[in-house]
Each structure stands twice: as structure tokens, then as C-alpha cells.
Amino acid sequence: MTRLDPLRRAVLAVALINLAYAVVEFTVSQVIGSVALVADSIDFLEDGVLNMLIFVAAAWPLHRRARVGHALAIVILVPAAVTLITAVAKILDPTRPDTVPLTVTALGALAANLAAAAILARHRHVGGSLARAAWLSARNDALANVAIIGSAVLALAWVSGWPDIVVGVGIAVLNADAGVKVWRAASQERLEARRAEA
After folding, report:
1. Amino acid 52: pLDDT
2. What is the pLDDT of residue 1?
3. What is the pLDDT of residue 127?
4. Rg of the chain in Å (alpha carbons)
5. Buried b (16+ CB within 10 A) or exposed e, 80-114
């Protein structure tokens, strides 16, 4: 067994968790009209794909992993763009989503993301930009779920869709920041691979 075998097992488990909950969260988001849940469901889908790519790429040599790291940085930015488009549409009709399904779904998402973060925690320093991408995604998702729960609580007192919109945009910003960090880590790996080949 190589050093990355445990990482590959971990990201496969995390990929399956993310893909399953993406379906749940997207379905609820469509029923109640929540920007935050749309953003988070797209993020779950992106994380599932990201972790599947990591599962495949973790067995590759450093220079090839660095290239995948750059691609993953771009993949992480996709939910940010989709969320901003959804938020603009919601601004035109800022109705409040139903807070009970929003809160219950966000609690389920938080549980899924905490499980994913716990699985990845011991691997985040092992696989370079790949493991960093997986860890940052899981961490950001857990933070986003706490924010979604907070927006639902705030919406109980303030009958408006604006807390949901603000949280959705905040999730987009978190994803953008993670994408930049993964890009930098992958760039560092490419430099290290070039030095090793020289």
C-alpha cells in the first residue's frame, strides 16, 4: 500500500456522501425557493465530482497531480458563479423561503459536511493541493451550513428573502477563496516538480 491509499479511500467515501446529499438539498431548494440551498446543493455536487477526481489523481506523480490541482481550483469556482446568477434572479423576487425545511435541510447538510471533514481531517497535509482542495471544500461547506441555519433563524424575525440571498452570496465568496488557495498550492507543487526534474 502506498502513502496515498488511505487518502483515496477517504475521498471516495466523501464523494459518495456529497453526491447523495446534493440530490436531497437540490430537491428541497426547488420546492421552497432558497438561494442558499441552491448554492449549497451545487457545492455538494461540485465536492462529489472534486473528490472523485482526487480519488483518480491521487495515485499519479506530483507533476500530474499539480495539473489536476489547477483544474480543481477552477471547478471550485463554478458554484460561486452559479450562486451569483441565482442570487441576482432572487433579488428580483426576494420572498422568504419556508424556514422549517430550510433549517432541517441545512442541519442534514451540516451533519454530512462534518462527517466529510472528519474523514478528511487526518489527510489534509498528505496529498498536497488535492487533499487541500478536499479539506477546504468540506470545511467551507460546514461553515456555509451554519450560516444557512442562521439565515433561517433570522428570517423568522425578519420576513424577507434577503438573509437567504446574503448567505448564498457568502457561500460564493467562500468557494472563490478556496479556489484561489488550491490554485496557489498547485502552483507550488508544479514548481517543486520542476525542481525535482532539474
Report:
1. 84
2. 40
3. 60
4. 17
5. bebbbebbeebeeeeebbebebbbebbeebbebbe
